Amino acid sequence: MTKPLEFARTFSVTVKTLAFIGIPSCLSRYPEAWSAAVKANRGLIVSFLSLAYCVLGQLVYFWTNIRLLEGEGMFLEFANQIACTRFCTVGLLKLFMLSYHRNLLAGMLAELAAWWNEKNKIPPERVQNLAQIRPTMNIVTVITIINVCMVSAFNLLPIAEMIVQGAQTGTWHRKLPYQIWFPWDSLTGWSYPLMYAFQIYSGLIVVIGNVGFDCIFYLIAAHLSVQLNYLNKSIEQLLDDNKLTVEKSTKNNLDVERFKSDLFELIELHQKLLDYKALLESIFSFTFFITFSGATIIICLQGIMIKTASSYVVAKYFMFFICILLEIYFLCNYGHVMLRNNLNIGTSAFHGFCYKPAVNRGGINIEIGKCLVLIIMRTQKPFQLTAWKFWPLNITSFSKIINASWSYFSLLNALLKK
Length: 418
What we know:
mainly alpha, two-stranded antiparallel sheet, 13 helices
């Protein structure tokens, strides 16, 4: 027999990953006292301030050094700095959103946990729920590993370059993973190892902040999809259980009120899921707008950098490119899955009208039909998440982003060849 999977365990990888940079679990609310809240979130405060300085330092470095660059080197430096600065800025925004909406997230997750743990007491539903949530748990683990490997490549590549260069020329030229302005010389004396360690830590902060925020969305979307599938199957089962009774009995021996009561419970669950969707939109929508708004240009620039970079540098740009594609794809995919599952509910309710009861004079069809019409009307409101109302989260949006990125890449590549 399949063992129950506690709700908190579905978030275990993400919670542990975020805890690495001092971010408390999204499953718990802030302490009520200010002093206790600051103490519990001191790691988050340090991470936020560190990342904020990285964003500011990258902007200052770019502004003060852009005039010194010429030709192709200028473009590659520009593309690299734009990609890194944007990635850090989005990571900073995601850290802020996680902290700002933590109580909202904790409240919603507590309600989802209550439903999940209740349904896990029933073996058949437990097996179905586990089969639906397990792939997302695996996706979260794989994406986290890929992103950590990507930032490790960025962090450690300068060390490899210095070792190779020292072995070939006998001289060492100190390098840092990222181009960040400091008010002192960061390449001399004891400042160099300290600044290198700071940049490694900051790189982990931005990657973990980005991937943690996204994975929380993936898991919540997966749990909402589980409930939408449960709702769909419950409607189908309710109609199948009452089909013979509806077709062969009279109004007196058909408990219409009981049938309506069960159906109204499902309608209330669907309304609650619509409320969850609205809450999810309010928490994640603006951040996804920032993510999507620059995705096309960043994908295009990464493609150019992969094409023009030297052999040993291609690895980190390629991994960054893959991470961006995976992020956009899974955001669109989970939004698309929820939209499709909601439409399936309306389809199941519509099939209820295909039953042709023999007793029409008793008014049974009218009573049941009103309930089914109510469900169909609710499903006409799309269960559609958007990136701040600009981009719907579905596979069509992902396809448009890829097509636009390829068009820009082809144009820019042709211009660089001239």
